[in-house]
Amino acid sequence: MASGVLTEKALAPPKIGLRAPDTLTRIAKYVLYRGVALFGTVVVGVYLTVLIANMGGYLDTIRIAQIREQVGAAVLNDAALQTLPPSELRKYIDDLVILEMQRLRLDQPFVVRSVDYLVDALTLNLGRAEHLTSNSGSNQVRLILFERIPATLLLSATANLSLFFTAIFVALFLSRRYGSRLDRMIIALAPSSSVPAWFYGIFLILIFASLLHVLPFGGMVDTPPPEAMPAYILSLLKHMILPITAIVLHSIFVGIYQWRTFFLIYSSEDYVDMAKAKGLTARTIERRYILRPTLPPIVTSFAFTLIYLWQGAIILETVFSWPGVGRLLYQAISIFDVPVIVGNVVLIAYLLVISVFLLDILYALLDPRVKVGGEQRV
Amino acid sequence: MKIPPVLQELTHYRSALLGLLIIGGLLAIALYTVITIPYDEAIQRWRAGEEMWGDYPRNAVPEWFRLFAGNSLPTTLILDSQTPGQVRKESQVVTDEMRTADMTFAFDYTSDGFPNEINLFLTAKFQQKKPQATMIWKTPDGRRIPLGDTTVGVAERFAISTDQRLSLKLDGRAPEVGLFAQAGTTAKGETPVVQKGKYELIIEGLTFESASDLNAKLVVYGQAHGLAGTDHRRRDIMVALLWGTPIALAFGFLAAVGSTMTTFTIAAIGSWFGGWLDAVIQRLTEINSVLPTLPILILVGTFYTRSIWVILGIVIALGIFSLGIKTYRSMFLQVKEMPYIEAAHAYGAGNLRIVFRYMMPKIAPVLIPSFVTLIPSYVFLEASLSVLGLGDPLLPTWGKVLNDAYTNGALYNGYYYWVLEPAFLLMLTGLGFAVVGFALDRIFNPRLREL
Q1: Rg of chain B over CA atoms, in angstroms?
Q2: B136, β-bridge pairs
Q3: What CA–CA distance (Å, rounded) separates A242 from A208?
Q4: Which residue from B137, B146, B136, B141 is spatially nearest to B183, judged by alpha carbons?
Q5: With an 8 Å Cβ cutoff, are A315 and B388 in contact?
Q6: Are A154 and A23 part of one and the same domain?
Q7: For chain B, N or C: smaller number of CB within 10 Å?
C-alpha cells in the first residue's frame, strides 16, 4: 500500500495552492481515526455493562461458583483424597478455592477486577452459561452467541439493504415529481415511522398468519426443517417475508421523506443549473450532480436508522421467534441466565459499532472532503 | 414565534388537527382515569387476586362484540343465595340438630353460544361439623344430571367446569358445553347445539348444627365482558387500558422533557465556552450515539429494578448526550456571533446569563418539533421493555397487556381483541404526536415548507 501511495505521489503534478490530499492516505487516516473512536465507544459500553452487571455482584458470584465447581470436580476425581474425612475434605476444597481466587485476582478491589472483566468481555471470553446450551450442546457463552449471529445477520442485512435501495430509488423518483399526489401521499405517511418495527410485526402476524393462514407465525424454517436444499431455502424465504416487511414498513416512509428532501435541496444548487445549461441528459445530471453529493448525508442518516434497527431487532426477533441474537437475549432474560445476558449485550455493542464503522468507510469513500480534523474547517 | 400563532398555523394542516384531536382525547382519558380510579384502587384491581375478579370470565371478548356476533356471546350470570330474591331456599328440621338446606337456582338461558365456564362457590357457617351438599343439574327438557356431592368448608369452590368425571358422563365434552347442549348433540362427531330454556341447579344441603348455615353462589361465566374483555387471569383489561394512558403519557412526556432540556442546555454551554469543554461534549455525544441503549435498559431491568421511574431516570440519563447536541450546537455557534450577544457582553453580562437568558431563548422554538416527535418514541420504548417482560412490577401498562397476550399466544389462539386494544392505543399515541411533530417541523423550519 505504501509503495502505491508513493508512486501516485511521484506522478502527481506539483501542488498548487490548496489541493485535496491523496485519496488513499486520507481514507486510511480517517478510517483509522474512526476505528479508534468507535473502539473507544465499545470499551465504554462494555465497561458500563460490567459495572451494571457487577453492582449486584453477579459476575463475581458466577466466577466463584465456577471455581467451586471446578475445584470440587477435581477433588472428587482424585482417588488419593477420597480417604480423607468429610470435614477435612471440605476444608481442603475451601483452601483450594481461596488459592484459586487469589490466582484469578478475585480478592483484589473492584476497580482492578473491573478492568479484568472488561478485557475478558472485549475478547469475548464470556464464560459458561447457567442454563442455555448451544445446538452442539456446549454451554460456552461464546459458542451459544456465535451460533445465533448468522440468523440475525441474514435478517438484518436483507432488510436493511432492501430498505436502503428501495428508499433511494423512490426518493429520486419522487424528487422528480415533487408536489404530485403520490409525493404528498408518501410525505403524509412519514409519521408512521414513529411506530416501531415489532409493532408492525404484530399486525402482520395477525393478518397474514392468524387470519389468512398464508404465512407462518414465526420461526426461521418449517419444523422439521426440509432436507433438500431448494425446499429449505424456500421455507427460509417464506419465514423472512413478514419480519422484513415489518422493518421496511417501519423505516421506509421517513427514509424516503428525508432523502427526497436532500435530493430537492441539492437539485436547486447552481451547478445543477449549470449542468442543465450545458445540455447534459437528465440521467447524467441525476447521477453525477445530484446523487453523488447527496449520498454522504444519506449514508449518515442511514447509519442512525441502522443503530435504531439493531436495537429494535431484539424485540422484532422475539415477536417473530426468529432464532437470532435478539431472541437469545429475550430467552436469557426469561430464565435469568446472567452470563448469556452480559455476553449478548457485549455482542450487540460490537455488531452495532461494526456496522457503523462499515458505513463510516463508505462515507469516506463517497465524500472526498472527509478527513481527520476536517470537521473544523467546514 | 409566539405560541398562539403557531397553534393557528397548525390548524392549516389537516393531519395536525387530527393529531391534536388524538392527543386531546388521550389527555382526557388520562385525566378521567386518574380521577375516577385512584392509583391504589387501580393496583388493587390489577394485582389483588382471584377474590377481586373471580366472577369475571376468562379470556372473554369485549361486550360490544355482541353487536356483530348475533346472539352467540352470552354474558355472565350470577345467582347468589345471599342476595334476596335470586334463589329459592328451603329449610326443614330433620332432627334436633340436623336440618335440610335446599336451594334451587333457576335461570333462563337464551343465548345461542355456550358459556365460558361454570363455577359454584359454597360458603358455610358451622362450629365443628361441616355441612354437606349434593348438586343436581336440571335441563329444560327435564333431564337430571347429578353433579356430585361434597362437604362444605368455610369457603369452597366447586369447579364444575374442570370436573373430569362429569365430563366423561357428558360424552367427553367440557361440562359447560355438555350441560347446556341439546340431548343427542354431544356425541362424537356431532356439533353441540345449545338448548335454550329454563335451567335449574338444585342443591340438597344438610347442616348438622343448630346455628349452622349453607350458602352458595352459582356463576355461569359468559363469553363477553366489559368494554375491553378480560385476560387469562379473569382481569378486566379496561383497567390496564385506562391506567396505561396516564402512565404512557407521563413517561413519554417526562423522558422527552428531561432529555431535550438537558441536551439543549449542554449544547448551549458547550458552544459558548468552546475549547476543551466543547471537545469533551462532542466526544461524549459521539460515544453515546453508538451506545446500545435498549440492551443497557434491559440489563438494569434484569439486575436491579423494573420500576418505571428508575427506568425513566436512566432513559433521560442516556438521552442527555444525544445527537441533538450536534444540531443545536451548529445553531448556537451562529447565534454566538450575533450583534446582540456582543452588546450583552459589552454591558457586562456574565457567561451564564448570556447562555441562559440570551442564547437559549433565541432558538428554543426549534426544540418544540423534536420534543413532540420524541414523546411517542419513549412511549414505545416503555412498551418494548414491557413486551420483553421487564415492565413495571406494579403498574398496569399497555405494554404489559401486550406481553401477557404474547406469552399466552393470543394471536395463535384467536384472542385478537387482547392484542388489538393496547396496540390500537399505542398506535394512536404514536401517530398523534408524530403527525403534530411533523407539522410543527414544517412551521419552524420554513425551508422544509417549500419542499
Answers
A1: 32
A2: B146, B202
A3: 8
A4: B141
A5: yes
A6: no
A7: N
Count of domains observed in chain B: 2
Q: Which of B284, B283, B281, B316 is nearest to B297 (CA)?
A: B316
Strand partners, B102: B90, B204
Residue A55: its chain B contacts at CB < 8 A? 303-304
- Are the beta carbons of B204 and B133 closer than 8 angstroms? yes
pLDDT in tens, B4-56: 677 777 777 888 889 999 999 999 999 998 888 888 888 887 777 767 677 78
This prediction has a pTM of 0.81
Q: Is B295 on the interface with A (CB under 8 A)?
A: yes
Same domain flag for B16 and B93: no
| Domain end marker among B163, B190, B221 | B221
For residue A79, what are the domain limits? 19-122
Pairwise CA distance, residues B231 & B213, whole Å: 35
- The reply to whether A50 and A153 lie within a common domain is no
Chain B residues in contact with A341 by the CB 8 A cut-off are 298-299, 302
pLDDT by residue (tens digit) across B265-300? 999 999 999 889 998 998 888 888 777 888 888 888
- Looking at B221, B245, B273, the residue that finishes a domain is B221
**Nearest C-alpha of chain B: how many angstroms from A315?**
7
Is residue B410 less than 8 Å (CB to CB) from chain A? no
Nearest alpha carbon to residue B430 among A190, A245, A314, A304:
A190
- Nearest Cα residue in chain A from B438: A191
Tell me phi and psi for residue A12, to 5 degrees: -70, 150
Total number of domains constituting chain A: 2
- Tell if the CB–CB gap between B388 and A330 is shorter than 8 Å: yes
